[in-house]
Amino acid sequence: MTAARVGIGGPVGSGKTALIEAMLGVLAETGIETAVITNDLVTDEDAERLRKGGKLAPDRVRAVQAGACPHTVIREDPTLNMAAADRLEADYPGLDLILLESGGDNLASTFSPNLVDYWIFVIDVAGGDDIPRKKGPGILQANLLVINKADLAPHVGVDFPRMLAEATEVRGGSAVLPTVCRKGEGVVEVVEHLRREVLFK
Amino acid sequence: MKDVDGPMMLETVLGLASDREWHDRLHALEHEGGLETIAIPEADAARKRMRVTTDRGRDCAIALPREQTLTDGAVLFHDGRLAIVVRIDGAARMRLKPASVDDALRLGHWCGNLHWKVVFGDGVMDVVLDGPRERYEARLVDLHELASFEILGAK
Ligand SMILES: Nc1nc2c(ncn2[C@@H]2O[C@H](COP(=O)(O)OP(=O)(O)O)[C@@H](O)[C@H]2O)c(=O)[nH]1
Ligand SMILES: [Mg+2]
Where is the signal peptide, in residue numbers (chain A) (predicted)? Predict the structure, then answer.
């Protein structure tokens, strides 16, 4: 079976890299062979951070530099990312999962179905509880919406249960999961969700 | 790798229901109650992997090779007693008709910026709807000041 390709998008600083860092530990324990492709604007910052984290062999983290608006390389012309994923699969034949982190983008960013089988959109509590109500395409169309930094809710005056309920409502009942990626909370549930919906392992 | 409760794995397109050899085989099975269908919305048809349920409630997981595509009538399983076939459910469409070439340029540029999926027709453009039609009509409200066009079949 081919490796599942899962996109992770969302605004700058919402916790996309933190989610990946937290997921890598859970995935390793579950025996899911993983590799990561990061998309930064003009650096390899996120890739370096993941390599330093030491949860994956450094060569299993590849970087694509978007150069321009981050959504162009995940939607309009995802060929660079597709080629990077193909190379990873050729280099690691037993691979189960390739996570593709998009560069931080706006609420309209979406992934091409030619690139990923499934995609997660990560927003955070500190961005404001009105974000789900704004109904950006990322929030409406993602297969899974993750609302991160639940720990910050009391500090930024957000009614977290209400934010979750509103997000579920605008998404017509599609999956929404809460996390505190910095402490690893809710991350097991994200991995379980991926196993059921797209990893089948 | 797959426990007893796991989904039925469907990992390749075996053929098309409209092909002659498959047509006859599936027809025979249908009479014996051995034909199951998976309905997939048009908006999801480009995906290679997904968890789905057949019309008889069978839990399945599709995981196709990158070079294969889900099309209407794709046969994903056949063992002589059971066959599983894909049905692509066409999405609703919204037809747009520009008044002139100038208006068509504006309209095309606008819809392109919105990343809408469109199908071109004779003097018209059909927008493939992934979500409620009102959401799409709302995105065109401001354009009416810049270009003259009709939304056909609008309520
Ligand atoms: N309080 C809190 N901070 C977090 C959490 N997750 C990530 N952060 C912090 O948010 C910042 C941005 O995270 P990062 O993963 O780089 O975001 P990215 O730009 O979406 O990849 C970093 O300083 C993280 O330490 C969380 O669950 N709670
Ligand atoms: Mg990042």
Answer: none
pLDDT for A76 beyond 50: yes
- What pLDDT digit, counting tens, does each position of B10-44 carry? 999 999 999 999 999 999 999 999 999 999 998 88
For chain B, domain boundaries = 8-89, 93-152
Query: Was domain B93-152 assigned CATH 3.30.70.790?
Result: yes
Give tens-digit pLDDT for B93-120: 999 999 999 999 999 999 999 888 899 9
Asked if residue A97 lies in contact with residue A65, where contact means CB atoms within 8 angstroms, the answer is no
Contact A109, A12 (CB under 8 A): no
ipTM of predicted assembly, 2 dp:
0.89
C-beta A81 within 6 A of ligand 1: no
User: Residue A131, exposed/middle/buried by CB under 10 A (0-12, 13-18, 19+)?
Assistant: buried
Q: How many domains does chain A have?
A: 1
* Predicted TM-score (pTM) of this structure: 0.90
CA distance A178 to A163: 10
Which atom of ligand 1 is nearest to A49's Cα? Answer: 16
The answer on whether A10 is annotated among ligand-binding residues is: yes
Residue A82 alpha carbon to ligand 1 centre in Å: 27
Query: Which architecture characterizes domain B8-89 according to CATH?
Result: Sandwich (2.60)
| Nearest chain A CA: its distance from B80 CA (Å) | 24
In a domain, A201, yes or no: no
